[in-house]
Amino acid sequence: MAKTKVFVSFDYEHDSDMKKRLIAESEKPEFQFSINDKSLKKKEPEWQQHARKEIEECDVFIVLLGEHTHQASGVLREVKMAREIGKRRFQLRKQGHEPQKIKGAGSVVAWKKKNLQKYLSK
User: Fold this and answer.
1) Exposure pattern of 24-44 as b/e (b: 16+ CB <10 Å)?
2) Confidence class of residue 47 from pLDDT cuts 50, 70 and 90?
3) pLDDT at residue 41 above 80?
4) What is the 3-state secondary structure (H, E, C) of 8-53?
């Protein structure tokens, strides 16, 4: 069975630790997903074209929802692209945290093994 390809959108300034944790999760045998770990710097003039291409090639779009994510302009642009493309998407938050959700980015789910498996296998 092929692994689910995941695009991860996150607040680069505040939530890099969450992305590292998700990458670690993807390497566990009980999970069947892979992350293309190419963080796109907003300063690159072509970052939006690169992001759109990566989003088009993924199966699932995940927003790592931290305390400041709703203010991250790059994340908001990537969510808009994912919506336009029609990608399956959801927002993943740390357990015990209730950050502001991003409109149009899909359901907000707590970071638990069963939730990851459920939302990645739909």
Assistant:
1) eebeeeebebbbeeeebeeee
2) confident
3) no
4) EECCCCCCHHHHHHHHHHHCCCCCCEEECCCCCCCCCCCHHHHHHH
Q: Which residue from 20, 97, 32 is spatially nearest to 65, judged by alpha carbons?
A: 97
Is residue 60 in a domain? yes
pTM over 0.85: yes
Contact 45, 54 (CB under 8 A): no
CATH number at residue 61: 3.40.50.450
For CA atoms 34, 37, 41, 45, give the dihedral sign.
Answer: negative
CA distances from 85 to 20, 39, 40, 79, 114 (A): 26, 20, 19, 10, 27
Amino acid, res. 90: F
Q: What total number of domains does the chain contain?
A: 1
